[in-house]
Amino acid sequence: MLFNSFEFLVFLPIAFLLYWFVFRERKWQNLLVVVASYIFYGWWDWRFLFLIALTSFFSYASGLLLERYEGRRRWQQAVSAANIVLNLGILGTFKYYNFFVENLDALFGMMGYHLDWVTMDIILPVGISFYTFQALSYSIDVYQRKLPATHDIVEFFAYISFFPQLVAGPIERATNLLPQFQRNRQFDYAKAVDGLRQILWGLFKKIFIADNCAYTVNTFWDSYSDMNGLSLLVMGILFTFQIYCDFSGYSDMAIGTARLFGINLMRNFNFPYFSRTIPEFWRRWHISLMTWFRDYIYFPLGGSRCARWKIIRNTLIVFFVSGLWHGANWTFICWGLYHACLIAFFVLFGINTKSKDVVAKDRLLPSLKEFWQMAITFVLVIIGWIIFRAENMAQAYDFITRMFTTLFDDYHITAGRKHLIYGVLLLVVEWLQRDKQHALQFPGTGLFKYALTRYAIYAALVYIMFVYSGEVQTFIYFQF
User: Fold this and answer.
1) DSSP letter (8 states) at residue 338
2) Relative to the CA of 131, which of 159, 272, 371, 417 has its CA 20 to 30 Å away?
C-alpha cells in the first residue's frame, strides 16, 4: 500500500478512528497497530507476512533467552549470534543469493572453471532491509544491556511492524520506539496537526518534485550517449532532486503519520543538500541508517578513537556495507566506496568536519565560503548519485566522462529545464525553513500567525499536486 494511493487514503482514517475512539486501552491499541500493519504490508503480497512474522518471533524469543541466561555470557553470545545469523541469512538469501552466485561463477570462469550454480527466481520482499535492521537492533541492545527484554509479544510485533515506517524507515531503535508501545498514549491535537502538515509536505515532495523528475530521468537516461554535457549534468541534478524528494518525502509522511498515533519517530533527513562537507552530508542524509552503522559497526571497530589509518579502514568498511545494503549491484558498492574515499580525504588531512549547526544561522544568505563549500559538496553528491542510478559501472563511467568532457561544448539543454526549476524552488523554500523540522513548520509571527495565510499555502500545495503531478512512481527505497 502506497502513502500516495487511494487505498491508503481510506485505510489511514479508519485506523486512526479505531485507534483513538474504539481501542482506547494500550494493549488493544498495540494489537490494532499489529493488525493494521500486517494489512498494510500484506497489501503488496500476503506471502511476505510469513517472513516479517518469522523475523519478529525469533528476535522476540532471542530477547527472552538473553534475559534467561543473564550472567552466562557464553550462552548469551550464542543466542545473540544465532539471531544475527538467522536474520542476516534470511536477508542474504532473498537479496544477495543470485548476486553472489553470479559473481562467483564469473570469477571462477575467468580461471577456466565453470561452477554449476543454480540461480533462483526470487522476489525481494518490500522493506526487508529496514525491518531486519530494526529487529537486529533490539537483540543487540538487549545483549548489551541497553534495555530489558520485553515479555509482551504484541508490543514487540508492533515495534517491528509499525506501518508508517515499516517499508522504508526511518530504521528505529528499540530504545526509542519500543518504550512508546509500553506506555499509555494520549491524543495530542497540536502534535497531530503538525503531523498532518509534515504528511502534506512529504506528499508534495513526492508527487510534484520526485515523480516529475523521475519521468524525465527515466525517459532520457538510457539515451545519454546522444546528449551533450550540460544536458547530462541536468539529468544528474534531476535524479539528485528525485531521490531526495522521494525518500525524504516518504520519511516525512512516515513521521507525520506516526504522530497521528501519538508515536515519535526519529528524524531521517536534515536538509542534506545544504551540507558544507561530505561527512556533514552523511550526518544529514538517511540519519537512521548511518547512525545504525555508526553504533553497531563503526564504534565496535574502534570508531574515530584510534590511529588515522584505522579510522580510514573503519570508514571503508562502513560504506562498503552501506553500499551493499542498498542493493545487490556493483554500482551500489562503488557508490559507497566513492563516498568512503571522499571522507578518507578529510581524515587523511585532518580537516575539521564536525559542523552540525544550521548553515548561515540567523542570516538570510550564506557567506561566500559557505556557498562554495555547499556547491562543491553538491557536485560531489551528484557524481555519487550518477553512479547509484547507473545500470552498471561501465555506464556510470561513460556518463560521467561524457558529462565533464563535453560540458562546455553546447549550452543547449535537451530536456528537464522545467523540472530543474521545480527543484531549485524547493531548495529555496527549504533554505528559508532550514532551522525547522520540516518546511511547513511555520513560525507564529508575521503573516504566518494568521490561519488564513497558512491554509492558503496548504490549498496551493494541494492544487499544485493535483494539477501538475507527475506519473505515479513507486518509492525508490522500496527496492532496498
Assistant:
1) H
2) 272
**326 is known as an active-site residue:** yes
Looking at the predicted structure, is the pLDDT value of residue 4 above 90?
no
C-alpha–C-alpha distance, residues 296 and 300, integer Å: 6
Cβ within 8 Å of residue 95, ≥6 positions away: 124, 128, 129, 327, 328
With contact defined as beta carbons under 8 Å apart, do 379 and 275 qualify?
no
Type of residue found at 219:
T
Please name which of 383, 399, 411 lies closest in space to residue 221, comparing C-alpha atoms.
Answer: 399
* Secondary structure, 3-state, 148-216: CCCCCHHHHHHHHHCHHHCCCCCCCCHHHHHHHHCCCCCCCHHHHHHHHHHHHHHHHHHHHHHHHHHHH
Q: Classify 21 in phi/psi space as left (phi over 0), alpha (psi -120 to 50) or beta.
A: alpha
Quick one: how far is CA 146 from the chain centroid?
A: 25
Between 124 and 140, name the one with better pLDDT. Answer: 140
Amino acid at 436: K
User: Each residue of 303-320: pLDDT tens digit?
Assistant: 888 888 898 999 999 999
| Three cell numbers written together for 121 | 527466481
Question: How many CA atoms, within 13 angstroms, populate the side-chain half-sphere of residue 266?
Answer: 21
Rounded to an integer, what distance in angstroms lies between the CA atom of residue 394 and that of residue 392? 6
Cα distance between residue 348 and residue 235, in whole Å:
32
In the chain, what are the helix, strand and coil shares in percent, each to the nearest 5?
70, 0, 30
d(CA 265, CA 213): 28
Q: Minimal CA–CA distance to 227: which of 407, 393, 387?
A: 407
Instruction: Write the Ramachandran bin of 33: left for phi over 0, alpha for psi from -120 to 50, otherwise beta.
Output: alpha
Nearest of 386, 411, 409, 390 to residue 237 by alpha carbon? 386
CA distance 47 to 122: 13
Q: What does DSSP assign to residue 265?
A: P
Single-letter residue type at 19: Y
Quick: pLDDT tens for 29-40: 999 999 999 999
Taking a C-beta distance cutoff of 8 angstroms, is the pair 163, 258 a contact?
A: no
Eight-state DSSP code of residue 445:
S
Report how far residue 266's alpha carbon sits from residue 264's, in angstroms, rounded to the nearest whole number.
7
> Length of the chain in residues, anyone?
480
Maximum Cα–Cα distance across the chain: 75
Q: Which of the residues 326, 339, 419, 438 is marked catalytic?
A: 326
Write the CA distances from 304 to 133, 293, 346, integer angstroms: 23, 14, 13
Which ranges constitute the DSSP H helices of 261-286? 278-284
Q: How far apart are CA 397 and CA 392, in angstroms?
A: 9
